[in-house]
């Protein structure tokens, strides 16, 4: 299905974002004030309940239908040796996701989420970003539309995840193009690369920035030139979720890099997003700060696959359970504030 027929259609969608439902959030806040606890004592759980209410347009929001979607893609620049693992691992892990043996299978089971796996042209890697644009306009639109098509309206919370050997390199390039700072600020150790590989990654990103940075004048152009199919698909899914007012749980460094060029153009694009965690990837803290998001967790995870988002989804379930199930002071006949 085509959600974004042209680059302009994508840009138009990015510039006409639905606003939150402030009457639902006001009603949720009023309920929080009546629940049997000192005001504010459930901390960020209270904020999460209000956040979910305003995006679902429901003062008693739900987290019964949580949907994880993993997008997988391969990267032309991976042939330069920028990962601790060979590119064929992307396809092998897709098989593992489908067979139920990966971390995300266990973690979606634990939080009660569904899991879809969308492999994007794995036998046709993107072009090497240090020599030219990663994708043609048509290829970038295809990836955006694959992401948007994966977002079902029947969903309370979306967990976009990714798998792509080498993808911390284009992710770093997207961050640098979006927020400045150069390659050294954004390149990290990914799957655990050695010093020589780390230096190669930095060099590759620096070259890609020289080639593309001045042409990244829109979110679409940054995604097309520096992204990868799974990264672009996540961006499409995050924008489509916003159009449907579905809240999104952002995972780690690569998932957050997908929204970075969109946030540079329209900072409010992250308003329907929670940040699940601060990944062990070195620059993720800087990226979250640039996006003005505060992570819910810091568990030194750096797996990807939507794994951090699935763990943090349990916190959302806890927040909404408290919001929905607790008695009010009146119901429980507990003396409230005089
Ligand atoms: O989510 C993260 O923060 C994260 C940090 C480092 C690595 N990863 C995962 O590892 C792969 C990319 O690492 P690399 O070293 O191949 O660029 C890719 O499949 C990601 O899902 C994920
Ligand atoms: C085994 C493996 C699993 C992954 N899951 C996400 N990225 C990954 C990278 C590797 C190498």
Automatic annotation (TrEMBL):
- Please name the GO terms of the biological process aspect recorded for this protein, alphabetically: cobalamin biosynthetic process
Q: Which domain of life is it from?
A: Bacteria
- Mind telling me which InterPro entries this protein's record contains? Nict_dMeBzImd_PRibTrfase, Nict_dMeBzImd_PRibTrfase_bact, Nict_dMeBzImd_PRibTrfase_N, Nict_dMeBzImd_PRibTrfase_sf
EC assignment: 2.4.2.21
Its UniProt entry gives the catalysed reaction(s) as:
5,6-dimethylbenzimidazole + nicotinate beta-D-ribonucleotide = alpha-ribazole 5'-phosphate + nicotinate + H(+)
- What NCBIfam families does the database record attribute to this sequence? cobT_DBIPRT, PRK00105.1
Tell me which HAMAP family the record gives. CobT
This chain's protein is named Nicotinate-nucleotide--dimethylbenzimidazole phosphoribosyltransferase
